[in-house]
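Instructor's aside before we start: the two examples that follow are unrelated to each other. I chose them only because their records fit on one page, so don't look for a connection. First example below.
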Amino acid sequence: MNILNQSIAPKTRRPIKVIQYGEGNFLRGFVDYMIDTANKEGVMDAGIVIVKPIEFGSLENFVKQDCVYTLSLRGRLEGKTVVENSVITSVDSVVDAYSQYKEYMELAHVDTLRFVVSNTTEAGIVFDAEDKIENTPPKTFPGKLTKFLYERFTYFNGDETKGLVMVPVELIEANGKKLKECVLQFIQLWGLPDAFKAWVESACIFCTTLVDRIITGYPKDEAESLCNELGYEDKLLDSGELFALWVIESDKDISKEFPLDKAMQNKAQMDVIFTNDIKPYRDRKVRILNGVHTSSVLAAYLAGKDYILECMDDPTIRTYMQRVIFNDVIPTLTLPEQELKDFANSVIERFENPYIKHALLSISMNSVSKWKARVLPSFTGYIEKTGNLPKYLTFSFAALLAFYTGKDIQNGQLQGTRGQNTYNIFDDAKNLQFFQKYSTGDVDEYVQKAASNVDFWGEDLSRYEGFVPQVAAYVKDIRTRGMRAVLEDLVK
C-alpha cells in the first residue's frame, strides 16, 4: 500500500502566514483542520510551517508524507452516527527549532508571516529567569518566541506592519495575556531595546483563547482497517470528534484577517467566535460541559457505570445529567438562554459519541478542586438568584462525599469500594488524609467537616441554610439503599 503524500493528495503551495509551535494531534486536528477548511472554502490563502519546539521527537513522518495527513472526525449529529474523513494539506513544511535552528530563525524574515499558533502544554507558557537569549534556541516557548520576535523586529527595522498575532491554545486561563507577560519579562531580563518592547506592545497582538474539541489522535486499534478503507498508509492519521469551538478574544479585531468563522459557518457543531470578552463563553464551557462531568460521574460510577456513553444509555443517569444542566446550571449563566440550550444539547450529543470511551474514573481524578472550579460557581449563583438550594448540584456534593469514602491509603490513593470491588481515589495527599479520617465515621460530622472545609472550597458551605442536613440525608440514604435507588427517586 502506498504512503500518503503529495502524489496521492496534491497540495497547493500557499503564502506562509502561520508559524505553529507544536506538531501534536490536537493542533493538527483543530487549528490545521480549520485553516485547511478556510483555504478550501476560499476565505483564506495560508500555509503553515510547523516548528517542533522541543528537543525530543521526530519529524520523519511529516517529511515522508510531504506534511499531508488524514483527519477522521466521528460522532453523533442530529441523532445519526457520522464519519467525516478529509485530507489536510494546509501544512507547508516542518522545522526542528534545535537541529534546524538557522532555518527556524529565518522564518522570522518571511514577509507574509502574520500568525503564531502554539500548543506547548499547560506548562509551556512559563517564564524562567535561567533561560538565555544566547541559547540556540532558548529553552522555554516564551523565550523562543521573544527571540523570534526580536529577530523579526530587527530584520524589518521595526516596521509596524510586520508585527505578529499570537493565538495560543494552551489550556490555561488567560493564555494570551500570560504569554505576553512572559515575553515582556524576557525583554526586561535580556535587556532588549525599549523600541523593541514598544513594537511588541503596539504592532503585535496577543489573543486569549478558549478551545474545545476532543482529539483522540492516532487510532492504533483501527488504523489498519481505516487505511485499507482509505486506500493508502498514513502514519500521521489523526482522529477526533465532530464538535469544535474556538473562542478568540483580542483587543484589536482580527476576524477579517483570520476568517475561520466564515469557513466554519456551514459546518455543523463547529464554531469560531471572535469577542472582546471571553468570560461568558468560558463560564458556559466550564459550568455546562465540565460541570456536568464533575456533578455526575461520581454518582454514575457508584451506580455501576464505567464510561460516559453508558451513562447516556441509562435513562436514570441521563435524566439526572440533563437536570443538572437545564435546571441548576443554565439559570446561572449570562449568555442568551437559547444559545445556552443549544450548547447544552451539543454537549449531550457529544457524550453519545460511540467512538470515544471516556472512563468515569479518569474524570473523577482531583474531584475536590474540580467541584470548586466547575460546580461551586453554579451552586452559589443559583442560591443568589433563587434563594433556594439547587437540588441536583446539592446532590452532587453528597455523591462526592459518598465516592470519597474509604479507610485505607495505598500508593498515594484512597481505596473506595463499589460492591465487592475497590477503586482508587486520586487527589492531593492532604485531601485524601481528610477523607480517610472522617469519611467512614459519623455521617453528620463527616458532612459538617467537609462542607465547612474552607481549604477545599474557598468558603464555608455550611453557612448555606439547609445544605448540611440535606447533604447528610442524601449520604445516609446512599449508604442505606445504594446510589442507584437514590438516583431513581431523585429524578422521579
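Example two begins here.
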Amino acid sequence: MRLPKTDTQSRRPSFLGILAALAMLAFVATFARDASAAGSFKLRSTEVTEVSGAWHIFVTIELTKAPLVAHQSMKFVFTRTAVYERALVDGHEGPVITRVALANQTPTVEGMDVDFADATGKIFKGTHFDFGLTRTRGYEAGEYKVEVRTADSIPIGGTQYLTLKGDNEIIDRRAVTFNAKDKSMKKVSAYDAGAPPADGNPPPPPPAAGAGPVTPTGTAQPFVPKEGFEKTQEEEIKTRPSGCGCSVPGTDERSPIRSLAWLTPIAAIGLVAYRRRRN
C-alpha cells in the first residue's frame, strides 16, 4: 500500500534539482566570462615588409565597452609556424628560398600598454595601435600566429596570421666533392709566388734559412774568463830552489838547526867568559 507524501517530504529538494542548479550556475559564470572577454582584434595587413631592420605592425582592437582606465596592459603572442630559409645548394648559383614548416614552437610574448583615449582624454572602447618587431628580438622572415590577451591572459578576439617578408641569413648547404678524373674540371696553373716562367719549368724553391756559408763577424767573449786562470792564495805551492836536489842543513827555512842559529853568538860569549875565569 503506497502512503501519501507528507508536507515535509514534498518540500525537501531532490538531488537532481541541486545538480541542475549547479549546472545552470556554471553556465552563467562561463557565459559572463566569455562576454567580458568578447572583443575584436584585427591586423590591418596580413603581410608586412621589413623596412630598416624592422616590421611595422598596425592593429585594430575593440572591446565590448570602454575600459575604466585609458591605458590597458595587453600581451601580443607570436608563435612561429613557418620560416623562409635562404640556402646555397648544388646546381644553383644564387641562394634558393625554401618555406620550412615548424611545429611546437615556443611563443614570444610582447607586453605593451595600449591607449584607448584620444587627445582630449575621452576613453573609447576601440583603438588603433601600432608597434615594431625587430630581428634583435628573435624575429625573422616567415609566418606567425598572432593572439592578443589581457594582462590576466583573457583572449581578445580570434587568432590572426601574419607573414613577415624579408631576406634571412644565407645558409650554405652545398656538398663538398673532389673528382680529379672529371674532364669537365679545369686545371688551374698558378703558383703562390706568381705565374710560371715562359719555359714552363717551375721556379726553384727558395733556399732554406741558414743553408748558406756563415762568416764570423766581431770578437766573441771566451768561454772561460781570464779570472778563471788566476790562482788563489790557497792554490799557491811553494817550490824548492833549483840545485842538485840535496838539502843543506841550516838552509832550509823549516830546519830546526836554522831556527836555533841566533843562539850561536850567545854561546861564543859564554865560552870566552868561562875560559877567562879558569885562567
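The first helix runs from residue 7 to 11.
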